[in-house]
């Protein structure tokens, strides 16, 4: 006899194990915040320690019995694990506990489903959800063997499970196609900004670090900002004016979290590309968080996954209003370049320092110099014109030319990479290469 799943409830028993093997453990307090953000009502937390997960239940048999007693005691209809469970483990636990079982990935997906507001965001969440449940379909169809036939309809046919999987694959393919169109539209907008030589700064950071509050403070955009995990899913971009630089684009992006499921990174790749293609990253950090350094490490891991680890980065330590007697300031390296800004997006203290630091770094990020190109580099010259990076040009008798450039340094480096060149390989007129000038 198979177990038919009951309706999900809001009363939830939470499970958090400390495993001696594997990566760093997740924070139980953050786990509880995730459940609250999803609208759950945690009634109990079961903790324990194992050297390795049980293949069948993830927990040991004694802990499963203890969990069953907690579920019965509190009348809970939902058990949530702060771990990633296999489809078989979820199915076995549901059969034993007679209630809905959810893992960390499913929980984060549920929060994403609630937060998505734009059409693109909803598509990205749906894609991640469909990929997640594709291996778990059997749990919902164990009571069906074959589609019921009738006169003229009897025969082997497809099982309901096979039909469902086929429809699921078709839906995933359709969403991927539509997201591909979104990605092409984003690329087109990005190329337009590059042609206009407008630098881009992307806000990145751990979830609930205050990115959207800072975005609103700088741009007065009025985007949704709340003291919740994953309050922002959909990217927002606004034009701002940076002193001594001019127009720039500021982008707000989705927050990161420890052990962010890989399928979420894949689903939100179009959104995260805004960060990967920025001229500078503003890494917003909750300065008052106890796990500040761990959160920084988690964000840097995700940045590495999307290929943004080598971009110029300015750390923005936010929420100094929660630190006693902590002044707003700019931290600099030995050469005087800004490394970090301490501010409060809530009160506005130190925001003017952020503008100053951005002006210094974006001024470096946009190359405004003259370069001499020999005739053999005609393809590079053509690409510079395609990017609308050439302000002026003077031709020489030997067929070469001297160009006055205005182009984001990251874009020029991409063009040079296609030619197997670096900034040092170019002949800069009366000036050192840009990366040397930056110091």
Structural descriptors:
guanosine tetraphosphate binding; 3 domains; Alpha-Beta Plaits; 4-stranded parallel sheet; alpha/beta; cytoplasm; GTP-binding; 15 helices; 7-stranded mixed sheet; 439 residues; coiled coil; Rossmann fold
Could you walk me through the main structural features you see in this protein, from its secondary elements to its overall organization?
The protein is of the alpha/beta class and 439 residues long. The protein has 3 domains: 10-102, Rossmann fold (3-Layer(aba) Sandwich); 189-363, P-loop containing nucleotide triphosphate hydrolases (Rossmann fold, 3-Layer(aba) Sandwich); 366-429, Alpha-Beta Plaits, CATH 3.30.70. 40% of the residues lie in helices and 21% in strands. It has helices spanning 28-37, 61-74, 87-97, 104-115, 119-133, 138-141, 160-195, 211-219, 262-267, 269-276, 292-305, 351-365, 378-386, 409-418, 434-437, and strands at residues 11-19, 41-50, 78-81, 100-102, 200-205, 236-242, 246-252, 280-286, 313-318, 329-332, 338-342, 366-373, 390-395, 401-408, 427-428. The strands form 3 sheets. The protein has a 7-stranded mixed sheet with strand order 6-7-5-8-9-11-10, sandwiched between helices. Strands 2-1-3-4 form a 4-stranded parallel sheet, with helices on both faces. Strand 6 and strand 7 (246-252) form a beta hairpin. Helix 1 packs across helix 4. The termini are far apart. Residues 1-9 and 139-155 have low confidence and may be disordered. Its cofactor is Mg(2+). Its main location: cytoplasm. Keywords: Coiled coil, Cytoplasm, GTP-binding, Magnesium, Metal-binding, Nucleotide-binding. Pfam families: GTP-bdg_M, GTP-bdg_N, MMR_HSR1.
